[in-house]
Amino acid sequence: MKKTTLHTLREMKSQGKPISMLTAYSFWQARLVEEAGADMILVGDSLGMVEQGFPGTLPVTLEMMILACQGVTRGASKPFIVGDMPFLSYETSETEAIRHAGKMIKESGVDAVKLEG
């Protein structure tokens, strides 16, 4: 199985093929998700609750997300990897949103970022 790309995902959608996406927060979880054959991995800001024990996602920082995404991108090479942008990393201005998204992509190697609105 080769690397899943945006082109791959568009082809799958146009052919009506199902696209699978699972969540991972670390190297070992990413390895398991890749072995399971998922097309995509989401590194969610839910890591604040699941991995750090926070009551919600608000305490999650951009740095925490980058660190988690780095582990996931080292653990899985084939799935398309999407990293969540945490609260207030993109809402303040378009300039900040672009800067923070670029930082996440550059420093962690994710294929895309996700913004929640």
Distance between the termini: 34 Å
Q: DSSP helix count? A: 5
Helix content: 40-55%
Kindly report the spatial arrangement of strands forming the biggest sheet: 1-2-3-4
Strand content: 5-15%
Question: Quick one: biggest sheet?
Answer: 4 strands, parallel
Rg computed from alpha carbons, rounded to a whole number of angstroms: 14 Å
How do the helices and strands line up, and which of them pair or pack?
Layout: H1 6-14, E1 21-23, H2 27-36, E2 40-43, H3 47-50, H4 62-75, E3 80-84, H5 94-108, E4 112-114
Parallel strand pairs: 1-2, 2-3, 3-4
List keywords for this structure.
alpha/beta, 13% strand, 44% helix, 117 residues
Structure description:
The protein is α/β, with parallel strands linked by helices. It contains five helices and four strands; from the N terminus they run αβαβααβαβ. The protein has helices spanning 6-14, 27-36, 47-50, 62-75, 94-108, and strands at 21-23, 40-43, 80-84, 112-114. A four-stranded parallel beta sheet has the order 1-2-3-4. Helix 2 packs across helix 4. The longest helix has 15 residues, at 94-108. The relative contact order is 0.18. The mean pLDDT is 96.
Short summary of the structure?
The protein is α/β, with parallel strands linked by helices. The chain is built from 5 helices and 4 strands; from the N terminus they run H-E-H-E-H-H-E-H-E.
